[in-house]
Design brief:
Blueprint lengths: L1 E6 L13 E5 L6 H7 L7 E6 L2 E2 L11 E6 L22 E3 L4 H9 L4 E2 L4 H9 L3 E4 L2 H6 L5 E3 L5 H12 L6
Parallel strand pairs: 1-5, 6-7, 6-8, 8-9
Antiparallel strand pairs: 1-2, 3-4, 3-5
Length: 175
């Protein structure tokens, strides 16, 4: 049987470039979890799953022609012109920044964000489980940390990295 699959945001990091919406032949009895795992997408990264536009569980049995859409954990929310409650942040962000990004860790710390640098893969996994957002260039470290709340930086320089972080998490980085 054949399904249509669409992944969003960092879930696409686990797919070949250019694969965003595509058809996939699956066996009878397949579930979204089995399909995502077969593509190398950690199911722990999925926060919202739709099958034919309706909310579904990872174990939902798929049928021929189903449209499966997967979204990651939402770390940002564009409220546009909607008013925010005064004096209350929407969330408190804490960053676990890979040791390979010391300038980025320093820049975030200088701007008042809590920053930790995981010492190894186990430490990174523990921090993610505690709600810290892992930032790394390494897909392997993000995968080893169990996915979850993580962002893979693509830029090489600090200015580009800060720009990515500002856009991804809707930060105000004014010192």
């Amino acid at each position: 049987m054949e399904i249509e699959l669409r992944l969003y945001e960092e879930l696409n990091d686990h797919l070949p470039v250019g694969k965003r919406t595509f058809a996939r032949t699956v066996r009878t009895g397949a579930t979204p979890a089995s399909v995502l795992r077969s593509l190398g997408v950690p199911v722990e990264l999925v926060d919202l799953l739709l099958v034919n536009g309706e909310s579904a569980e990872l174990g939902h049995p798929l049928a021929d022609g189903d449209r499966v859409t997967a979204y990651p954990v939402f770390e940002s929310l564009d409220l546009g012109r909607t008013s925010r409650l005064p004096g209350r942040p929407l969330r408190q962000l804490r960053f676990a920044v890979d040791g390979d990004l010391p300038a980025l860790a320093g820049a975030l710390k200088d701007r008042g964000y809590p920053v930790r640098c995981p010492g190894d893969r186990g430490d990174a996994r523990r921090l993610v489980q505690e709600g810290w957002i892992l930032i790394s260039r390494s897909r392997e470290l993000i995968d080893a940390a169990g996915g979850g709340r993580a962002y893979r930086v693509r830029s090489g320089g600090l200015a580009g990295q800060l720009d990515e972080i500002v856009r991804r998490f809707q930060l105000d980085l004014t010192p």
